[in-house]
Design goal:
heterodimer, A: 164 residues, mainly alpha, 2 domains, 7 helices, B: 487 residues, two-stranded antiparallel sheet, two-stranded antiparallel ribbon, 20 helices, 4 strands, 2% strand
């Protein structure tokens, strides 16, 4: 019965850090708080017994994306100045809109009959994902490489120096 | 297994042709000396022309096949033709600008990849593949937007990228909800599972569809998801702007068409109302803001928003009592074709007025064009008249088909709004004509026309007149594209 408190911990971690990300006036704090959100999400994936996705989440988001964001923040001049880097606009309208959307989504999500699988013993998802990627999802898997190639090519094009 | 394989191969053939030629050019450009990379212009056109022939023969063939996640039906091939035509013409324009010449190689490769993405969007019948195809197109388009290394280009590319990523978020959330409700991303499975869905799981699909509508609304720059369009259109190199206004927009519409066909019959959403409001806002706001523009690229950007609104009228008309109206969808396809031709023609003249490295964007700079370049002036006047929708041009015919479909679906109010919008749009389109013909020249140096540009302008101009007079055959093609719509 450790599951419930553990779930609560991850939920608090995710939502709490997300709140800091949104409301902190300094973008440096926001960037670091994103760490908690990403870890919390990884925890949720574990609860869904998607070990592979959880590991990928940590590797890519914490190890890659977050470091990239922090580098971008550190390398940008004077961005730590809170008044210019991270202002909040339209607080009241935003709060109302978000709250209505929240109630709406909660109402629907809680009332839905989700297709739930029977509770099984925890089984690793690596094999099923590998099988799916090389059988029924082979086409998207291959096609993504073109998207990656375009992005790679774009990165090269965008950072090259103008030679005249 | 072999039949499935054949079906997939056939549906993927145009995509693969474009990707492979892109990869080939990428390898070639690595070994070409820098000043020779402009030569890639020719193989790019060759690849596009070859793919067009492939697509056209498959359209004539007309035998729909589905396999795995892809489909080869006439809807896909019909839209493919619009994409390929737009990319072909806008690539011709790029010959005259810096992008096509200075650092050649990658520009053409990315153009081919963007086209491949559009084509795959038309051919996918799975939300997952549709999304990846959209990303291939969008990523290439973001980079093409900021291809020119200037502050304006960087701003445009960044804006486009951030708004595009935002739109992708909506799309993914929508796809996730639909997957949650139906357990699949395949259109045919979704329609089957959705038909039996009730209560909350139906609501889940509905929210998913609404999020998808928002996501694709960004891509076609429908109001209120249009904020990025003017800045991006202005900051991008003109040939890329032409591509965005024609090909990328048509790709957004093919996704919307698939969405309507797949989801309208069972979701019981107020589709007609939603699409009508979207069309109304897009037309009206696009046209009203266009009135105030002095920069021709911004003006054409708002005009492109307005024209997306006209096409949305056709989409709204395509659902009547939960039934799909093929003729209205055919009118949308026809309009995409017509609008691409007119707007690329107009952008060709914007390119012609500039020279390598600098662009002439202000409408005032077009003063006195009629005295020095009567042919160019006449062509610009023709495109403006066609964009307004005055007979006997292609623009008029396109609108006529759209509005006829709207009337036959009982959308009288929306039809009246569309006609009023055409009247409003006449103010700013015809004011360009006025400047060209009646204002004194400010001593601007006049453009030199190259043969490629001359080809682009004369081809689009002739098409606008010829198809304006004899549209029937082309409309039959559009109509047959939507015969026996299935998933």
């Amino acid at each position: 019965m450790i599951a419930l408190p553990l779930f609560g911990f991850f939920a608090l971690l995710t939502v709490g850090s997300a709140l800091i990300v949104s409301f902190s006036r300094s973008i440096v704090y926001s960037g670091f708080a994103l760490l908690g959100t990403f870890f919390g999400a990884a925890g949720f994936y574990l609860f869904l017994s998607s070990d592979f996705v959880a590991v990928t989440q940590v590797l890519i988001y914490v190890g890659g994306v977050l470091v990239l964001i922090l580098f971008a923040i550190m390398l940008t001049n004077k961005i730590e100045d809170a008044t210019t880097s991270n202002p909040s606009l339209n607080r009241i309208a935003g709060a109302v809109l978000t709250f209505v959307l929240f109630l709406f989504l909660v109402g629907i999500l809680s009332g839905t009959d989700w297709v739930v699988q029977d509770e099984e013993k925890f089984a690793s998802m690596v094999t099923p994902i590998g099988n799916a990627l090389l059988s029924s999802y082979l086409l998207p898997f291959e096609v993504i490489s073109i998207a990656l190639l375009a992005a790679l090519l774009g990165a090269v094009v965008l950072v090259r120096r103008e030679v005249r | 297994m072999t039949i499935l394989f054949l079906a997939m191969a056939k549906a993927l053939a145009p995509f693969l042709a474009l990707v492979l030629s892109g990869l080939l050019l990428l390898i070639v450009t690595a070994f070409l000396p820098k000043e020779k990379t402009r030569l890639l212009f020719y193989p790019t056109l060759l690849a596009l022309a070859g793919t067009t022939i492939l697509v056209a023969t498959n359209w004539v063939d007309g035998f729909p096949l589905e396999g795995g996640m892809v489909i080869s039906d006439r809807i896909a091939y019909g839209f493919d033709l619009v994409f390929l035509l737009s990319v072909f013409l806008s690539t011709i324009l790029s010959r005259e600008t810096e992008e096509g010449n200075a650092h050649g190689g990658e520009y053409y490769v990315l153009t081919l990849f963007a086209t491949a993405g559009m084509v795959l969007m038309a051919h996918s019948r799975d939300l997952l593949l549709l999304f990846i195809a959209l990303e291939i197109m969008s990523l290439s388009a973001y980079i093409l937007t900021s291809y020119r290394q200037s502050a304006k280009g960087a701003e445009a590319g960044m804006k486009y990228f951030v708004m595009g990523a935002f739109a992708s978020g909506f799309l993914l959330y929508g796809i996730a909800l639909i997957y949650g409700a139906t357990g699949s991303t395949d259109f045919s499975v979704i329609t089957q599972a959705g038909a039996g869905a009730t209560g909350n799981s139906l609501w889940l699909i509905r929210i998913g569809v609404a999020l998808l509508l928002i996501g694709f609304g960004f891509k076609i720059a429908a109001v209120p998801f249009h904020f990025w369009a003017p800045d991006v259109y202005e900051g991008a190199p003109t040939p890329v702007t032409a591509l965005m206004a024609s090909g990328v927009k048509a790709a957004g519409f093919v996704a919307l068409v698939r969405l309507v066909i797949a989801f309208a019959p069972f979701t019981a959403l107020p589709w007609v109302k939603i699409l009508s409001v979207l069309a109304f806002l897009t037309m009206t706001i696009g046209n009203l803001i266009a009135l105030k523009q002095t920069n021709i690229k911004r003006m054409l950007a708002y005009s492109s928003i307005a024209h997306a609104g006209y096409a949305l009228v056709g989409l709204a008309a395509s659902i009547k009592n939960g039934q799909i109206q093929e003729e209205a969808l055919a009118a949308v396809l026809f309009y995409m074709f017509a609008y691409s031709l007119m707007t690329i023609g107009a952008f060709a003249i914007v390119v012609a007025m500039g020279r390598k490295g600098d662009e002439v964007d202000e409408i005032g700079d077009y003063a006195g064009l009629s005295e020095h370049h009567p042919a160019l002036a006449a062509a610009m006047a023709l495109f403006m008249i066609s964009l307004t929708g005055i007979p006997p041009t292609l623009g008029f015919i396109g609108k006529f088909y759209l509005l006829r479909a709207a009337v036959s679906s009982g959308l009288i109010g929306l039809t009246v709004v569309a006609v009023l919008n055409s009247v409003i749009s006449a103010f700013y389109y015809l004011s360009v004509v006025m400047v060209i013909y009646f204002q004194k020249e400010k001593g601007y140096r006049l453009p030199q026309l190259s043969y490629t540009l001359l080809f682009a302008v004369s081809f689009t101009a002739m098409a606008v007149i010829y198809l304006g007079l004899f549209p029937e055959e082309l409309f039959q093609v559009a109509k047959q594209s939507f015969q026996a719509v299935v998933f």
